[in-house]
């Protein structure tokens, strides 16, 4: 007999580390925007495993590709090629549309950023070691990525961090220029829409200036599109709205519908700095992961994911803005932050779950929504109604 939901939650508390806090619930299945608890209760997932399941849960094309590949070949090693890896890299190059490049595959967003940091230093050579990133940016929890992250609360308990990282406020072009003028910067790293900071957009003029200034000072521009990539913001990648050409782009999350994959794309000239033995990871680019990524990206192309995100994001944003308790909405496409009029975000998250809706509190006053891009208009209407109920109940409780 399978364990009940409360047994599963209890076992998780007993046997798993507490770094994620206690689990709210346990799901046994999922389809599209819906997750199902053991009791049969259905919950609308407006977080998509944190912007991962853009095609919804268990999209048939992805499930079939994983099942088929699992029966043929799962893993060899990077001493060998497999039938999917180069094709996934080609699809990424096509969608990025910034010219010829090369891809390194890892297993997570943090690993994609680690690779970017190492490649930047390798390319820049001696004397250009520093990485400049932005306050508020989030790049992952491993030491290099954590050092690039601009959120002291996540960093301080783990100091000393990796040397050679500096942070400037997003929007402060003067501060960025002052760092670059020191002549020792290998790369500037930017998350254009700061998801983990509360869906906060970095000003366009700053990103445009960063592109010009990095080029002028001989530094690289790395864009972290781990959360924003693959159509979520209404473009294939958030930077495309600005028409700039970054030197590297880091990817993960939506790339393989929840199969753990991260990727670093670098312009060919930059990528050439990595020589055999410089970097690697055992599972990176293995056949099973690449089968999942190929099926995911092809399906995202078939459904025209960016236009879906644009159209549905506009509808959802409009509806959210009308909710009592919501002071404003920021973000783009289907990566939205509802800014609350009072600091009740955590209560709203909990009440929303009781109402049958998964959203994510960031800090006290922002609720993040990142539903699957395949969400239906009916599901959006239901979600808004459930969120409205949660906001009302949170107001009564506080
Ligand atoms: C912008 C960004 N970069 C990097 C990461 C780290 O990705 P991962 O958790 O897969 O290591 C995240 C995760 O939320 C992210 O949002």
Describe this entry's structure for a reader.
This protein has 398 residues and is α/β, with parallel strands linked by helices. It has a domain at 62-302: 3-Layer(aba) Sandwich (Aspartate Aminotransferase, domain 2), CATH 3.40.640.10. The chain is built from 14 helices and 17 strands. The strands form four sheets. Strands 4-12-11-10-7-5-6 form a seven-stranded mixed β-sheet, sandwiched between helices. A four-stranded mixed β-sheet has the order 1-2-3-15. It has a four-stranded antiparallel β-sheet with strand order 13-14-17-16, covered by helices on one side. β16 (360-362) and β17 form a beta hairpin. α4 runs parallel beside α11. The longest helix is centred in the last third of the chain and has 21 residues, at 377-397. The radius of gyration is 21 Å and the shape is globular. The chain starts with a helix and ends with a helix. The model has no long low-confidence stretch (mean pLDDT 97). Bound molecules: pyridoxal-5'-phosphate. Pyridoxal-5'-phosphate binds at residues 50, 108-110, 113, 138-140, 191, 195-196, 224, 226-227, 252. Pyridoxal-5'-phosphate is lined by residues 50, 108-110, 113, 138-140, 191, 195-196, 224, 226-227, 252.
